[in-house]
Specification:
single chain, 187 residues, alpha/beta, Rossmann fold, five-stranded parallel β-sheet, 6 helices, 41% helix, disordered N terminus
Length: 187
């Protein structure tokens, strides 16, 4: 099988997934997605709109308390914050999060890779959504194999679909993450 992200299990019904997330104490999610790495503003705009829709459904449909996405307050690439402000606000939000979700549509140099490393160091349960696993940095390609083993948190890699199906893809990925979490050794 090629090294693309695949899905081996089916997604939980929304009600069951919502209950599993609540039982696990997951109320706040940090969504990391490339922003300044896009080639132009129209590409950023399309991605932002899809992620804002995902963010709304995570809160409305799954009952999460909050879904942080740095692009929520950045309407265009011209409105990007300076790196100092962006780093501070992102890391504060990541500290407060119960779950980290990386949306990595293609191989790009992006701050999301820094955020992913920080989430792993903080032992945040991590869902990595990617179209092709080979696009991930070397250390992340097989991180799922070590999921839940000290010092790593529970990690699940799942297939990222197009913008229109993003919520269903993330719901599927979250179902896989929760299954891994339930199977992980406690400690």
């Amino acid at each position: 099988m090629p090294h693309s992200a695949t899905s081996g299990e089916s997604a939980l019904p929304i009600r069951d997934l919502s209950a599993n997330l609540a039982r696990a104490g997951i109320g706040r999610v940090f969504i990391a997605a490339p922003m300044s790495a896009f080639g132009d503003d129209s590409e950023y705009q399309a991605s932002r709109e899809a992620i804002l829709g995902l963010r709304k459904r995570l809160v409305d449909d799954l009952g999460l308390d909050d879904a942080y996405y740095a692009g929520a307050s950045v309407a265009s690439t011209a409105a990007f914050d300076g790196p100092d402000n962006a780093l501070e606000s992102d890391l504060r939000a990541l500290l407060a999060a119960d779950l980290f979700v990386l949306l990595y549509p293609r191989k790009v140099l992006s701050s999301v890779l820094i955020e992913t490393g920080y989430a792993l160091a903080l032992r945040k349960p991590t869902l990595i959504m990617v179209r092709n696993r080979a696009d991930l940095p070397f250390l992340l390609r097989q991180a799922e194999d070590l999921s839940g083993r000290d010092p790593l948190p529970v990690i699940h890699v799942a297939a990222l679909s197009d913008d229109a199906g993003m919520f269903d893809a993330v719901r599927h990925g979250l179902s896989g993450l929760m299954a891994r979490r339930a199977a992980a050794p406690s400690g």
